[in-house]
Amino acid sequence: xxxxxxxxxxxxxxxxxxxxxxxxxxxxxxxxxxxxxxxxxxxxxxxxxxxxxxxxxxxxxxxxxxxxxxxxxxxxxxxxxxxxxxxxxxxxxxxxxxxxxxxxxxxxxxxxxxxxxxxxxxxxxxxxxxxxxxxxxxxxxxxxxxxxxxxxxxxxxxxxxxxxxxxxxxxxxxxxxxxxxxxxxxxxxxxxxxxxxxxxxxxxxxxxxxxxxxxxxxxxxxxxxxxxxxxxxxxxxxxxxxxxxxxxxxxxxxxxxxxxxxxxxxxxxxxxxxxxxxxxxxxxxxxxxxxxxxxxxxxxxxxxxxxxxxxxxxxxxxxxxxxxxxxxxxxxxxxxxxxxxxxxxxxxxxxxxxxxxxxxxxxxxxxxxxxxxxxxxxxxxxxxxxxxxxxxxxxxxxxxxxxxxxxxxxxxxxxxxxxxxxxxxxx
Amino acid sequence: xxxxxxxxxxxxxxxxxxxxxxxxxxxxxxxxxxxxxxxxxxxxxxxxxxxxxxxxxxxxxxxxxxxxxxxxxxxxxxxxxxxxxxxxxxxxxxxxxxxxxxxxxxxxxxxxxxxxxxxxxxxxxxxxxxxxxxxxxxxxxxxxxxxxxxxxxxxxxxxxxxxxxxxxxxxxxxxxxxxxxxxxxxxxxxxxxxxxxxxxxxxxxxxxxxxxxxxxxxxxxxxxxxxxxxxxxxxxxxxxxxxxxxxxxxxxxxxxxxxxxxxxxxxxxxxxxxxxxxxxxxxxxxxxxxxxxxxxxxxxxxxxxxxxxxxxxxxxxxxxxxxxxxxxxxxxxxxxxxxxxxxxxxxxxxxxxxxxxxxxxxxxxxxxxxxxxxxxxxxxxxxxxxxxxxxxxxxxxxxxxxxxxxxxxxxxxxxxxxxxxxxxxxx
Lengths: 427, 427
Description:
Two copies of one chain form a homodimer.
Chain A: E1 2-5, H1 12-15, H2 24-40, H3 42-53, H4 64-73, H5 76-94, E2 101-106, E3 109-117, E4 120-124, H6 133-146, E5 150-154, H7 165-173, E6 178-180, H8 184-193, E7 203-205, H9 210-219, E8 225-226, E9 234-239, H10 245-256, E10 263-268, H11 271-285, H12 291-299, E11 302-305, H13 309-319, E12 323-327, H14 331-337, E13 343-346, H15 352-357, E14 383-391, H16 393-409, H17 413-425
Parallel strand pairs in A: 1-11, 4-5, 4-7, 5-6, 7-8, 9-10, 9-12, 10-11, 12-13
Antiparallel strand pairs in A: 2-3, 3-14
Helix pairs in contact in A: 2-3, 2-8, 2-9, 3-8, 4-7, 5-6, 6-7, 8-9, 10-11, 10-12, 16-17
């Protein structure tokens, strides 16, 4: 761990730099697969599934029989846990519903805003060692509340042509309308263009490796929206001597185990705490199954001492952490003033894991400084806001003249004329 | 105008195709200018302003003296019109404010969502023949309501190194914090990287030509967000024999005058109306100053007859128009059921021009079918949603077990451990 004391403000951006990766080299692969899927449809999907996942599938869609089989394989204990999480995620996202917002801006001019669901969405769930069924909950639950009528889920099959049972269980529980055993670039390309088996969708959500990330970026060039740009996960904790060093260490490590490029940062006004957390990390690291990964990630990480809360806040706001844990005496200072963070965890009994799984908040959050300009996934991510207006004869008389003058000043005579004709008909 | 009767559903996508343009050839120019601005800052800005705008500027920032001068040049009539528009835009966007949304998802688990402003935003306002001061209102007014603390506006100078007075008047009126005489690719690059004169921003808004559009796309690769992907403006009207042909024609033409690539479509259940609108277009076209542009745009446009409202709605939803005017007897059918549209205008006295200027709704809207997956600019475009959670000892006891089970099932032991340590401390 790197300990840094009282860094000068002009060194912050260097200290807070994220581990970067270049993606130029994989762009050409992604483009090629997109072209082939666009042209050949399922034939290309079959080919790349065979190459990348090592399995030859006759059909991609998961059957009702497979779902039943999966349901039997998931332990009752895990089912209950998933149901609790689902219930909390539902509650938190359901209260985000907004009703029609309406106002008469001028007498006779009625304007309103309504949110309507994005009709067709695609969810990407990675396969591999960690089956992210929790991400299924985080995406499918709000999609359902929003009222999206087509929810397609793609996840890569294993060597035996199967998807992890917990993923299937969660997908079925949360109302996914079609589950497809397709992964990687070919899944994203398929949902972008549509194939015989894969419906074309309007927006794609979900995490993935570098290939999936680049594929999602490319998808946006073909009219598909995506949830947000992706990057390695990150956690910043601000803590003082009211914090419990063992808890802080466990939170830092829970982030560090995600990947060797994960970033964890502790900012503290207490040098003692920094030293104690460092010791705790050593102790806890030893017993972790993913020790190798976590160790590498902690090597990139930083323990930063600053003089006071005000400096700490400024530094944190410049960083814009995805996850931000506050364990300080004056927690309100940070809660009220933080400008840039994805999700904020407050107090000694609020580990990041809670938000990752079961408290109800969404875990799909902006990384890489995108907390400055992007929201985490929320109910609105599955809707679009539309505006409506209805103007009466009285209304057009009230604002018509202003429109004519402005249209004329912008040199748009036909815009003016659309109002003039109406005003004249009312004379 | 192309008249099409009862098109078969499998021909819709061909009929509704937007005029497309390829941008490959200008990408390299855009990339080059980005590189140079990143490396050389103001020196590059100066160079390209001289090349593209034909003016050599000593400084880019508009001074207080220039703003006063501009204020004197704008007629009182136009000032009043702008003030009325501003007041309506303010009212409509102010009611979009949402308060903190809070819920206790499980006893002891408090979660809430708050929207906080994007701190630094950039507005791009094109120059040229049509000075889009109305767009200044549409972007700066909600930015101010959202609480963005840095609002930078870039607009190209004319040959005399000036920005149109109405743009300066509107920018000053709406609380823009810095106005810069910089246009085109170099302006977008400058706001992306920051230079000596241009602040780096987190999100860029506003329309522009093809070069600006490609530049905004490129900006997203450097961590900047943009309002939405841009395309030529478009209008679809659904009308039956309760509509006034002259009004419909004037609305179609107001869209057509935007550019030769604008698209206007009329869908109707009345062949008579279609014929009458066609005649009206001929008549009105003749007297328009932008006749040449409007004529070319109408040549690409379509008058489509369909048997009934149900078919009309399906076709419109597949198109997803930016602007959608409803002039039919049963307007509620369309209002309640339209799934994909940017902004909807209802009834004979609600021309699109009203929303373009003064009714209060925003005129920055998704084109090119993006109404299927993007919102028009609204108050939320200037904020990001952040989540917060605070869990009590009781709360972690209530959900801790579920988190442990799920983390274990995903193979993330350190995530589990962060909860286990806390649960054990409470035994």
